[in-house]
Design a protein that fits this description.
Blueprint (H helix, E strand, L loop, with lengths): L6 H4 L1 H20 L4 H15 L2 H13 L4 H6 L11 H15 L5 H12 L2 H24 L17 H5 L7
C-alpha cells in the first residue's frame, strides 16, 4: 500500500470549505446562546460514536478548555444514565446521537422531539448543524488516518498534522 493519503491535503479547497462551514456553524451556535462547552460535549459524543481517535483527542482537550468537567467526559458514553448533565446538555447530546446514528426505528425522532421541547428553534437548528459538521470532520479524519500524536504533560505535541494546522482554533477538528 502506498504512503498515507490525507484527504484534507489532497483537496485543500474542499477542506477550506468544510472549515468555512464549521465557522458558520460555530457562529450560529453562539448566536443561539449555546456555550462552547455544550458544543464540545456534542463534538466529543459524536466522535465517540464514530470512533474517530483524532477528533476525540482534539475535542476532549477543547471540551476541558471550555469548562467541561472530567466527570462529565468520563461518563459521556453513559450520559443517559447520569444526572451530571443539565437539560440543555442532555438535549444537545440527544441531537448529536440522533444525527449520527440516523436510526429508522422512530427512536431518533422521539429523541429529537424531546430535545426540541427543551431548545429554542435556533439552538435546535445550530446543534443539528454542529452534529452534521462533526460527522463530516470525523469521516475526513478516519478516511485520512489522521494520527493521534502523544502529548507532553504540558499538552503539546512535537508534530502536528496538516489537518490540525489548518483548523480554525476551537472550531472543529
Amino acid at each position: 500500500m502506498a504512503g498515507a493519503f490525507f484527504l484534507d491535503k489532497s483537496d485543500p479547497g474542499s477542506w477550506r470549505a468544510l472549515n468555512g462551514l464549521a465557522l458558520k456553524v460555530a457562529a450560529a451556535a453562539e448566536a443561539a446562546g449555546l456555550g462552547r462547552a455544550v458544543v464540545e460535549l456534542l463534538n466529543v459524543r459524536v466522535s465517540q460514536l464514530n470512533g474517530c481517535a483524532y477528533c476525540l483527542d482534539l475535542h476532549d482537550r477543547l471540551a476541558r478548555e471550555a469548562g467541561v468537567s472530567a466527570q462529565q467526559l468520563a461518563v459521556l458514553p453513559a450520559w443517559c444514565e447520569t444526572d451530571v448533565f443539565d437539560k440543555t446538555e442532555r438535549a444537545a447530546l440527544a441531537v448529536g446521537e440522533a444525527a449520527t446514528a440516523l436510526h429508522d426505528d422512530g427512536k431518533s425522532f422521539a429523541e429529537l422531539a424531546a430535545a426540541r421541547a427543551v431548545l429554542t428553534e435556533a439552538q435546535y437548528s445550530a446543534l443539528q448543524w454542529c452534529a452534521i459538521a462533526m460527522n463530516a470532520f470525523n469521516r475526513v479524519s478516519i478516511l485520512s488516518g489522521h494520527p493521534v500524536r502523544p502529548r507532553t504533560a504540558a499538552g503539546t505535541t512535537g508534530d502536528r498534522t496538516e489537518a490540525a494546522s489548518q483548523t480554525p482554533a476551537g472550531v472543529m477538528p
